[in-house]
Design brief:
The protein is an alpha+beta fold. About 40% of the residues lie in helices and about 25% in strands. Strands 3, 4, 5 and 6 form a four-stranded mixed beta sheet that branches.
Length: about 140
Amino acid sequence: MSENNILEMNPGNSGLGKVEIAPEVIEVIAGIAASEVEGVSQMRGNFALGVVERLGKKNHGKGVKVELGEDGIKVDVYCLMKFGVSIPTVAQKVQDNIRQALLNMTALDAKEVNVHIVGIQFESTKQEVEQEQEL
C-alpha cells in the first residue's frame, strides 16, 4: 500500500499499468450495501451531510469509516435500525452484504466489518398525528 492511503491492486504483472482504489470508493460500496439491507433505517451522518442531502446531493459513503492497514481492510459502519427488527440478524446481514459487495466489485476481502448500531428509528409521527385528529 502506498503512503497516501490508496489501495494498489496487483492482479498480476500484465505490463499494462496499475489499478488503485481510493478508500472513498470502498466507503461508497459499503454504504450502499449496508443501506440495501431490510431493517436498516438510515446511515449515520453529521449535520452538514444532512443539509447537503436535503439540497439534493446523496452521500452514499456517510456512516462508513474505512481503514487501510498492513493486515487488511477494516470497515466500520454506523447505522440506525428500524424498530421491531432483530438487531443481531440485521447486523449479520449487513456484514455479509458488505463483504460480498466488496468481493464482487473490487476482489478485496475485508478483514473486519464492524457494525455499530447508533439508534432505533421508530414509526413516523405522521401516523400518530392522523390518529389524534380522528379523535
